[in-house]
Design a protein that fits this description.
231 residues, mainly beta, 10-stranded antiparallel beta sheet, 4-stranded antiparallel beta sheet, globular
Length: 231
């Protein structure tokens, strides 16, 4: 028996969760060919959305979301071909958003890894979202509340037709959120690089690349970047 196989930083509570890589269990993703998914966040834990890490093999193809479900994807590793109104190649940092019913297929000629978020869309009368395809590298960063060491990049338009926001958030070593936040929005996130300390409610967690977090509405939350590299 190896004691280290019984150790994990993963924690799941009523109003938050930290899912760390040593706890990942891959499974097939319905409708996807030659693909495996790690479901990091899901409604069964209390969340209003589903967040996956998807690994596509060579020759893999995506399935369609369920009826009424919107989809956001972000390429982490490799390249995928996106077939929609036009054909686009998405490399690391490439992303796409599809409203419910927007037809599209992802194909991988070689292994690739994606961040995938799906959510039942909540419409607002007189407004509708649109397909968005872009690259994080092309999005202008904004100092968060004036702090040049905490840069927020909004990946989706701030328009009434969108019922969610998707951002990347980069912290320089020593930077932190300027306050303990508590608000009506729930959050899902994944650390792409670096790490630090996250306060979730009254608990404090060390976090690093590959970790995923769910935060329920009004959960007190705070992050500080610790180490010699950005988070």
């Amino acid at each position: 028996m190896k004691i280290d196989t019984a150790l994990s930083r993963t924690r799941v509570a009523r109003d938050h969760a930290l899912i760390t890589p040593e706890s990942h269990v891959p499974a097939p993703l319905v409708g996807w060919e030659k693909s495996q998914a790690i479901t990091l966040i899901a409604p069964v834990m209390g969340a209003g959305f589903t967040q996956h890490l998807v690994t596509m093999e060579a020759g893999a193809a995506s399935g369609a979301p369920s009826e009424g479900v919107e989809r956001f994807l972000f390429v982490l590793e490799g390249e995928v071909t996106l077939e929609a109104d036009a054909t686009t190649t998405l490399a690391p940092g490439g992303y796409a958003f599809f409203p419910p019913g927007a037809e599209h297929v992802l194909r991988a000629a070689a292994p690739a890894r994606l961040f995938l978020l799906e959510k039942v869309y909540r419409p607002l009368d007189g407004h509708a979202p649109k397909v968005v395809i872009g690259r994080e590298q092309d999005v202008e960063g904004q100092p968060f509340l004036g702090d040049p060491d905490a840069i927020l990049r909004p990946l989706l338009p701030d328009e009434p037709g969108f019922d969610l926001a998707m951002n990347s958030f980069a912290f320089q070593p020593g930077a932190s959120l300027p306050m303990v936040e508590s608000h009506v929005m729930e959050h899902g996130l994944i650390f792409l690089e670096g790490g630090g300390v996250y306060r979730l409610g009254e608990s404090w967690y060390p976090v690093t690349a590959g970790d995923a977090i769910w935060m329920a509405p009004y959960l007190p939350q705070w992050f500080g970047c610790i180490g010699k590299t950005p988070a």
